[in-house]
Amino acid sequence: MTEVDFLSQCLELGAQRRYANKWPYLMFKERYGREASRETKKAASAQYCGEVQEISDELLDWL
């Protein structure tokens, strides 16, 4: 991984964290055509944030 790859991944990770709370709403609205239930959005958000956290942990290990 080059420095450019690393920096672009960091920028992407920052964007993902900023929009992590909006992601479940957008996904389920697209899939079901309406707002998902609060519990469903929380579960999806937790899963997505967990994946983002794994990526950030890998980046920190790389440093």
Concise summary:
The protein has 63 residues and is an all-alpha fold. The chain contains 3 helices and no strands.
Describe it:
With 63 residues, this protein is an all-alpha fold. It has one domain. It is 83% helix and 0% strand. The protein contains 3 helices and no strands. It has helices at 3-19, 23-32, 38-62. α1 (3-19) runs antiparallel to α3 and α2 crosses α3 (38-62). The termini are close together. The mean pLDDT is 69.
- Write down the overall geometry: elongated
Based on secondary structure, the structural category is mainly alpha
How many domains make up the coordinates?
Answer: 1
Q: How much strand content do the residues show? A: under 5%
Alpha-carbon distance between the termini? 11 Å
Task: Write down the oligomeric state.
Answer: single chain
Spans with pLDDT under 50 lasting ≥5 residues? Answer: none
Q: How many distinct beta strands?
A: 0
Structural topology:
Elements: H1 3-19, H2 23-32, H3 38-62
Helix pairs in contact: 1-3, 2-3
